[in-house]
Amino acid sequence: MDNASIKKLEADLWESADLLRAGSKLTSNQYCMPVLGLLFLRYAYSRYKMVEEEILKDRPVRNGRKMPVEASDFTAKSALFLPEMAQFDYLVNLPENVASLGLLNVSGQTMGSLGEVVNNAMELVEQQSDQLTGVLPKSYTDFSDELLGELLRIFNNNALDEVGGDVIGRIYEYFLNKFAKNIASDDGVFFTPKSLVKMIVNILEPKSGVLLDPACGSGGMFVQTGDFVNETGLQANKSMTFYGQEKVEYNAQLCLMNMAVHGLTGVIKSGDEANSFYHDAHHLEGKCNYVMANPPFNVDKVKTETAANAGRLPFGMPKENKNKEIGNANYLWISYFYAYLNETGRAGFVMASSATDSQGSDKDIREKLIKTGHVDVMISVGNNFFYTKSLPCSLWFFDKGKAENLKDKVLFIDARNYYTVVDRTLNEWTEWQLKNLNAIVWLYRGEMDKYTALLQEYRKILGQVISFEEVLQLLKNELKDLQKKAKLEVEQADRKDKKRIQAKYDEMIAAKNDEIIVAKEAVWLYEKFGEGEYKDILGLCKVASLTEIEEKGWSLTPGAYVGVAPVEDDGVDFEDRMLEIHRELLSLQAESNNLMDTISKNMKEMGL
Q1: At the fourth CATH level, which superfamily is domain 3-173?
Q2: pTM as predicted
Q3: According to the 3-state scheme, what is the secondary structure of 544-583?
């Protein structure tokens, strides 16, 4: 199944499930965990059938029949064994009148609804895994049997058997992402946008050892690390040990389910003992190869004495207020991330932009931190990278094993103007933009081979025999020709053929636009660094010495070092942009009209 088909499957499944949610009058918050639980069960069943097939291939035969599979066979292959009543096809094929079957749950009680049967399935799955004990949702009796049956049918899509576990994991993440946008009452701290997670993982390059996320939310750092390690040919569960702390138990459940869907195991602690301000829950100070996190920003009212007793403060405690509390905990987090690292450890984390230049005791801690020589890379990120807040942020990177020639240097990257617009309220880095930013880090570290491999990747995709600029212009011309041809053919076609022809050209135009995106990113990178030589680029990147940083008052704000780039032609086609603006205005106008109609209707109902 290709990428476009997977995207369509994601969207179709979400649309179907969300329509049911809207019809049920349940909030996204009430609906989120049960729906993700069903997706988890669907994944577990898909993996169960795949592993069962492997086991049966070499199964001994007695009296002409293969020996039945057992739970221990699945344990040996790192898969969950599913008793019959926890298997997805069993649940889907139950008759409407479940009560008439007289089914018994794990406690020996008769079950009278589909919700009770699904709750029981979750109990049965938990019995197979210590990691999942008490984690899976069991609130399915809140759903009508009709609604629950329809959800089961939606996730019984045959395409999910074809795509395999990795893609079901991706669909799980897609749903998690969509819920994060919809749960407006939640501040979104449990979900870190994937492009920020990928940037952190790509720069840290985890290979083996202990990884801690002391504010792990839904486990995005673990999942992305697992993908990164697996792509190098290693097995994440064998080479990495995952530890997490998450104060909110609901989020910790999401994390454990997310990890299980991606075939990962880890130790996640939740509740009061997992409050990182007051507990090193896993006793990992000085023991971690990697630390990754997106902690809550600007937390106040942290009790000074309790936090001091919990330790992990190599640079001292931030100043307390008259209530003996820390008024802003950003530098507590920063201190923890450093303290957890072993002698060669690396850390990458998201932090409020204000922390790069905050004053008072924060500045004193920052100066001590910088003088260690272990601050590696600082990246400024623009607005709208989060689903529920629009503030900019920064990515910080520490490396205790920095090369000697880089000890007194820090790479600053200002990426506030480098992103892709997803919609009016959300920006992200595409895969190619992530690679380009990563390439700057490679050149700073002297890793020329990785930069060269990226150029080769661009050339392979673009089929380049000419310069990237020429390829880009050629593709733009081809796109215009395609658009003209499409318009002409659709106009000349019979009415019954218009839709088919338009759809055919829409697909071709989308593919050409994808090529143009790749070519634009190739041009962006090559114009700056050619065949591979790091240099400071005005407005983008700068390698600063500790002396320069001291002269700037120990600031770690990239903009203070990289300067401002000259204004350039953005390369946007004026006609195309005007069409986009026109379409957006029409959309806004339609929204406005619908809102006015709703207001008028409500006022009439109120007799006004």
Answers
A1: N6 adenine-specific DNA methyltransferase, N-terminal domain (1.20.1260.30)
A2: 0.82
A3: EEHHHHHHCCCCCCCHHHHCCCCCCCCCCCHHHHHHHHHH
